[in-house]
Amino acid sequence: MRVFAQQLVRPAQYVALAGYILFLGFPLLWLVSASVKSSAELNSLVVNLLPQEWHWANYSEALARQGLVSSAGNSAMVALASTALVILIALPASYVLARLKGTIRVAGVGWILVSQVFPVILVILPLFLILRTIGLTDSLVGLTLVHTTYTMPFALWMLQGYVAAIPVDLEEAGAMDGGNRLVVLRRIVFPLLAPGVVATAMFSFVSSWNEFFFALVLLQSPENYTLPITLSTFIGGEGKVALGPLAAGSVLAAIPSIVFFSIMQKKLTGGLMAGAVKG
Amino acid sequence: MKTRGVSIAACLTITTALLASCGSGDAADDGPVTLKFQALSDQPAAIAETESIVADWNEENPDVQVEIVPAGWDGVYDKLITQFNGGAAPDIIHYEAASIVSFARDGYLADLTDLMSDERRADIPEGILDSVTVDEQLIAYPTELQSYMVFANRTLLEDAGVEIPTGDTMTWDELREIARATTDGDEVYGLGWGLSSPTAAFMSLAPGFGGTYFEGTGEDATLTVDDGEMALPELVHDMAYEDESILPVTMTQSGSEAIASFYAGQTAMTVQGSYQAANIAKDAPKDFDWVALPPLAGPEGPQQAANPQTLSVNIDSEHVEESAEFIEFFTQTEHLAALNEADALIPATTSAQEHLAEKLGDENGWDTILASGQNFVSAPYLFVDSYAQWKDTVATPAYQRYLAQETDETELADQLTNGWDEITQ
Amino acid sequence: MPSLLPILVLSVAPLLMGVLLAFTDAELVRSPDYQFVGVDNFTRLMGSSFFWDSFRIGMTWAVSVTLLQLVAALGLAQLLNSGLRLQALTRVLALIPWAMPPVVVAIMWKMIYSPNAGPLNAFLGSLGLPDDINWLADFSTALPAVIVVGVWVGMPQTTVTLLAGLQQIPDELHEAAAIDGAGAWRRFTAVTLPSLRPIVTSITSLNFIWNFNSFSLVYVLTEGGPGGRTMLPMLFTYLEAFKNRNIGYAAAMGVVLVVVVVALLAVYLRSQLRDDRFETKKKGGLS
Predict the structure, then answer these.
(1) Are residues B370 and B416 located together in one domain of the fold?
(2) What is the pLDDT of residues B190-223, one digit of tens each?
(3) B82 touches chain A (CB under 8 A)
(4) Is the same domain home to B113 and B157?
(5) Based on the structure, what is the number of domains in chain B?
(6) What are the beta bridge partners of residue B151?
(7) Range of the domain at B301
(8) Which residue in B270, B266, B281, B247 sits closest to B365, CA to CA?
(9) What is the secondary structure of B42-62 as a DSSP string?
(10) Chain C, 103-162: which have a CB under 8 Å from a chain B CB?
(11) pLDDT in tens, A110-168
(12) Overall domain count for chain C
């Protein structure tokens, strides 16, 4: 009976996985499909996954849009730089936050929560004035700093969760084996944290990559625009949307993220950890 | 706590003032002046037209160079409010009357009354000029407009034995009659109307029924919902549920979504923004025979509320006069005509309308569309402080409930006025 | 710590200014003249029925999206962690929704939900089911429909977080439990869930905050309609701050939201952290 049940587990898992893929993937497939349809077809009542006529012009129109490519470069720069900064700062800080008790922890957790709950629109004006005073509006450095600052709370919060999930016994065992604190951190804690760090890095990359409001408000020169800002110029007044080019632009815009994900997801699991605990 | 609260607020104020002044202080005395022109455009053709006008200006005026800063419609309000409050707004600002008025009221826009040429002033119909006049100050040059139009499927009208209306205007009763005649109770409905956000349409078309909604301006405005205001919502309701001549699904869609049923022959007519004429020409099936019907007229006439796109000047700009000169240049007849042709909109000056009518004739319904350009009036809602909030949180939900038969007309009127009272208490 | 400086300047300072504005009558005008008005803004807010109605909708939205996200993502993370074929590919696929700007997500789902030109109704029709459901405009389906979009948007991040957490559980724990004769379900409840608890706590609290705070996705989907059924509270703050330019009153709304959300989270976090300590002790006793 039990063997029989176990034989059923795999197929059931695949069915469930297929369900997830359908749910997560289908809307994107529809977007891709929209990106190769003509506006006549998009504005008809015909429902087809494959276009009646392949309309690649959407892609050339999207690419001809001023600065789609260069704004992708800006987005990548800001996202990578702020991700690196966030991880560098948040990794040690989160360890402290998770392992130490007392008022610092309370203050830290308090700031993390309040900064995430308080509406950004109320923060933006003081922030804008401060950045202007130090000459960092309309600059990718300024935007990187802002993204770093606003990604930091949740990076800290998530990383401290991962630290807290490492049983203290493991550290104590390491310490008993004669390692000092740094050795314990390097040999036991950091390897165990690796997937959490990768997940947090992906997290901060994506939030910076997609961030619209700060970029909209802070960047003034077109050569500094990030991708979401450029994509938003596809949407016109009175709700006019050039659906085809917008879909094509979004598909193109997703490619760098997909590349980034493909690289990172390997690090999310697998090699890094193997043996770390046992060794 | 008390004192600190005030001092930080004061700090913020001082910083703003300080930054605003140093922000504008660094312009060079010699050498060419550079004006920043924040332009909104989504149509590639209109972007190209704007660039070419600016290039012409820059060539003719080596001392005053204009630099285009392209921005999108999506989020531009948020961008502007931060720019203004941070003292970093561009010199020349492209936007629309309904949204720019609040910036004018808060003191951010230069008064252009004395800078606009008499020639231009005489060229702009009074209703349109009024829509950019706040507290007797001219706060913007109007450039492009849209009106609500009825587009009809000629084949379906003829099949139903309906004569295609001609003439200067068409009454709402005629529209209702045609809708009834073309509804076959099965496949075809007389009318499709994208009313998912009904407030804008009801506000714009109310003047034809004598509906004003608001009286007074700014904080002191009051709302009345009476026969004139209720006439159009009730008419739509009756057409949808008594005559059953409106395709129900379209009333929950946007205009561009509702147009698909028109192409598919499920609706004989559709009410749309005038700019859709260009899209119909592009997107409708090849053998689709369509026509733009004459402008709609209510008991009071064919008036519609004007909400033009605008060009304004930042009051803190170092170069208000130069900016206004550029706008004068930008709004010359041939420039406005070319820009509006690219955007499929109606020029805000009579001469540009005529220029375009001459050039395009009756192609794609342009003659009827341009004819509706004479019927614009200024509507009070533009100048009301809490309008945006009332629209989003009170009016739109209330109209939606009414159009979905969740409430009746008494309840609708109550919800509109009570909601207003609560917001402005 | 020098790394704290940007945080102080760019986060703590603007936050404090924002909070303090709630006690003034500040407006966004060219020459502002602020007055300290004490708790006037708060008393006025207490009487605003629109705000509190939308507050209820906001709670329904945030709680359902957060819970569904957690359940769905936990399932997916388990699948992605159980050595199935094509893991790498499916993992990337599962992440792509993340790479889409919210505006694009909303426009895409509007196409899917379209009552007469959308694939969802077409699919239902091909199965012989009703094919004319007006998902986003029907008073009864609008909120559930936007909740599904909310889950879709938030699933990748929750899945990755949990997947990383699953990876972090030392194999020994599973092996020990398996040797003790625990079945799959028992191992899930006795080993996996307790080990994930701190991570589940942090991601649910964050998801809850974000969901409660979001309005742009839903606004593009429905503009708060039909009839206000999807009007989220943050929209009010936005309208008050930017459209009415009453930034003082809007800041008061922000403060109220902060107080309520932090109070709710404090209860949740306190119970979670207490369990946490308890679990650690228990585990310590077992090994």
Answers:
(1) no
(2) 999 999 989 999 999 999 999 999 998 888 899 9
(3) yes
(4) no
(5) 2
(6) B270, B292
(7) 148-305+386-424
(8) B281
(9) -SHHHHHHHHHHHHHHHHH-T
(10) 103, 114-117, 132, 134, 136-137, 139
(11) 788 788 888 888 888 888 988 988 888 899 999 999 999 888 888 988 888 888 888 77
(12) 1
In-domain check, residue C12: no
Same domain for B325 and B185:
no
Q: Are B56 and B120 members of one domain? A: yes
Residue B71 CA to residue A247 CA, distance in Å, equals 19
Contacts of B161 (CB under 8 A, 6+ apart): B181
Q: Is residue C30 part of a domain?
A: no
Burial class (CB in 10 A: 0-12, 13-18, 19+), B300: middle
Residue A165 distance to chain C (closest CA, Å): 6
Is there a domain that residue B108 lies in?
A: yes
Q: Are residues B343 and B397 in the same domain?
A: no
Strand pairing class (B92-96; B33-40)? parallel
Q: Which amino acid, residue C228?
A: G
Yes or no: say if C109 and C222 are a contact pair by the CB < 8 Å rule.
no
Q: Is C202 helix (H, G, I), strand (E, B) or coil?
A: helix
Does some domain include residue B342?
A: yes
B134 and B54 in a single domain? The answer is: yes
Question: Which chains pack against B, by 3+ Cβ pairs within 8 A?
Answer: A, C
- What is the Cβ-side half-sphere exposure of residue A219, based on CA atoms within 13 angstroms? 30
Residues B90 and B38: beta-carbon distance below 8 Å:
yes
Which pLDDT tens digit goes with each residue over B36-47?
999 997 788 888
Regarding whether B91 and B68 lie in a shared domain, the answer is: yes
Question: Which pTM was predicted?
Answer: 0.88
Q: Least CB-CB distance to C254: which of A122, A166, A231? A: A122
- Is residue B283 domain-resident? yes
Report yes or no on B4 lying in a domain.
no
CATH of the domain at C57: 1.10.3720.10
Is the bond leading into C226 cis (omega within 30 degrees of zero)?
yes
Q: Are strands B144-145 and B346-347 parallel, antiparallel or unpaired?
A: antiparallel
How open is the CA angle A189-A190-A196, to the nearest 5 degrees?
Answer: 105
Asked if the structure places residue C79 within a domain, the reply is: yes
CB contact under 8 A, B4 and C20: yes
- Neighbours of A, requiring at least 3 CB pairs below 8 Å, are B, C
CB B325 within 8 Å of CB B105? no
ipTM for the predicted complex:
0.85
| Cα-based distances in Å from A230 to A64, A222, A246, A251, C189 | 12, 9, 10, 14, 47
Give the C-alpha separation, C115 to C46, whole Å.
39
Contact by Cβ (8 Å): A155, A204: yes
Pairing of strands B304-305, B376-377: parallel
B18 vs A44: CA distance, rounded Å: 55
Shared domain check, B95 and B185 = no
CATH number at residue B329: 3.40.190.10
Structural domain range at position C121: 40-286
State the Rg of chain B over Cα: 23
- Specify whether the CB–CB gap between B312 and B92 falls below 8 A: yes
In a domain, C25, yes or no: no
